[in-house]
């Protein structure tokens, strides 16, 4: 089901990437306008992650393709936003390397576990969901890069949250590796 409503929402996250990046190349916008537009776009498209899963279940339109594409779209969106933030000097390159490196490592681990028939050992866990939630709050704060409601310094809060996200990223990777190693050892014999 390449083109049902839930899958179209997932595709929208992928299509959003050049739009969010492109905002920062529009010379006729002020930096504040660029920040606001990119932030709103990121939040709207990040919310499609919740919406596509909800609709797929509600409309009984779940599919193997949708289950594959959904996490890929999430990872592309997060990685692209992180690269923009590093380019704008709003996120440390070390944080981006940790987060992007973990995504590649865990995706590869999940693929390997699928090959050996042990996907349940690396199924999504709460620590991964918490990590994703913290990332999805940190990134728009860093994209906005200003004072929200004249009360919240989004750069400060975003910086703290992205570092917390990096810590959770390492923690979740260790968790998944601990779950996978016994399966890998058992299948290697």
Write up what this structure looks like.
The protein is mainly alpha-helical and about 190 residues long. The protein is built from 6 helices and 2 strands. The chain has a two-stranded antiparallel sheet with strand order 1-2. The longest helix has about 35 residues.
Summarize the structure.
With 189 residues, this protein is mostly helical. It is built from 6 helices and 2 strands; from the N terminus they run αααααββα.
Number of DSSP helical runs: 6
Give the N-to-C terminal Cα separation: 39 Å
* Residues in β-strands, percent: under 5%
Q: Regions with pLDDT < 50 over 5+ consecutive residues?
A: none
The rounded Rg comes to 18 Å
Order of helix and strand elements from N to C terminus: HHHHHEEH
Provide the structure class: mainly alpha
**Kindly state the mean pLDDT as a whole number?**
88
Number of strands: 2
What general form does the structure show?
A: globular
Strand order of the largest sheet: 1-2
Helix content: over 70%
**Largest sheet data:** 2 strands, antiparallel
Q: Please tell me the total number of domains.
A: 2
């Amino acid at each position: 089901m390449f083109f049902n409503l839930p899958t179209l929402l997932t595709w929208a996250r992928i299509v959003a990437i050049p739009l969010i990046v492109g905002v920062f190349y529009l010379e006729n916008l002020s930096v504040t306008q660029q920040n606001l537009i990119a932030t709103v776009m990121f939040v709207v498209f990040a919310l499609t992650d919740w919406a596509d899963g909800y609709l797929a279940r509600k409309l009984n339109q779940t599919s193997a393709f949708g289950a594959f594409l959904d996490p890929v779209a999430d990872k592309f969106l997060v990685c692209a936003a992180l690269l923009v933030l590093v380019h704008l000097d709003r996120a440390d390159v070390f944080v981006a390397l940790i987060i992007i490196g973990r995504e590649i490592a865990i995706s590869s681990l999940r693929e390997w576990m699928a090959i050996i028939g042990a996907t349940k050992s690396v199924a999504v866990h709460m620590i991964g969901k918490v990590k994703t939630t913290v990332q999805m709050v940190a990134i728009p704060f860093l994209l906005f890069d200003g004072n929200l409601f004249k009360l919240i310094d989004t750069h400060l809060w975003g910086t703290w949250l992205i570092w917390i996200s990096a810590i959770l990223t390492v923690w979740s990777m260790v968790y998944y590796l601990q779950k996978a190693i016994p399966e890998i050892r058992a299948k290697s014999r």
